């Protein structure tokens, strides 16, 4: 249950299920699990850009190569989490879910990336979402990016 993860005292309940948690590692474990649950959209954008840059026809990338080139995060678990998210969202093709072998960006992933590829657009999208207190989601990012591009074209 998520509420068990929200505090170090709550996470200690997991010890009853055989998970190696104690009073010394409960707080960092709780923090880690909650951070893993939050998506880092800067990392998502960077992963898509890296995959696009490194993907070649017929070749497969592994998560280790992507992780080594990543500048947004050096946390392999976070990178794997975000790659799995991208695969589940239909934005990348994983040849092997267990080994995280990436074959390419899907058309949906390329469409999303095209909307936020330019750093100026990406920064403006994040600013607009923050200023309007809109939760950062894939759909919100796509919507704000499209509106920003629309305004650029019409001005």
Offer a quick outline of the entry:
The chain has 155 residues and is mainly alpha-helical. Helices cover 61% and strands 8% of the residues. The chain is built from 9 helices and 3 strands, in the order ααααβααββααα.
How many beta-strand elements?
3
What is the terminal-to-terminal distance? 50 Å
How would you sum up the major sheet?
3 strands, antiparallel
List SSEs in N-to-C order.
HHHHEHHEEHHH
Shape: globular
Low-confidence stretches: none
What does it look like?
The protein has 155 residues and is mostly helical. It is built from nine helices and three strands, in the order ααααβααββααα. It has a three-stranded antiparallel beta sheet with strand order 1-3-2. A hairpin with a 4-residue loop joins strand 2 (92-96) and strand 3 (101-105). Helix 8 (119-131) crosses helix 9. It is globular, with a radius of gyration of 18 Å. The protein starts with a helix and ends with a helix. The model has no long low-confidence stretch (mean pLDDT 84).
């Amino acid at each position: 249950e998520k509420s068990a993860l929200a505090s170090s005292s709550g996470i200690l309940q997991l010890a009853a299920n055989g998970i190696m948690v104690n009073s010394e590692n409960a707080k960092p474990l709780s923090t880690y699990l909650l951070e893993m649950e939050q998506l880092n959209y800067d990392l998502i954008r960077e992963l898509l850009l890296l995959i696009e840059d490194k993907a070649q026809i017929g070749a497969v990338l592994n998560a280790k190569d992507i992780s080594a080139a990543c500048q947004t995060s050096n946390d392999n678990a976070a990178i794997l989490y975000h790659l799995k998210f991208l695969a589940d969202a239909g934005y990348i093709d994983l040849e092997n879910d267990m080994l995280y072998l990436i074959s390419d960006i899907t058309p949906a992933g390329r469409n999303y990336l095209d909307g936020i590829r330019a750093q100026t657009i990406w920064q403006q999208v994040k600013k607009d979402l923050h200023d309007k207190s809109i939760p950062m989601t894939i759909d919100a990012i796509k919507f704000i990016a499209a509106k920003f591009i629309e305004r650029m074209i019409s001005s």
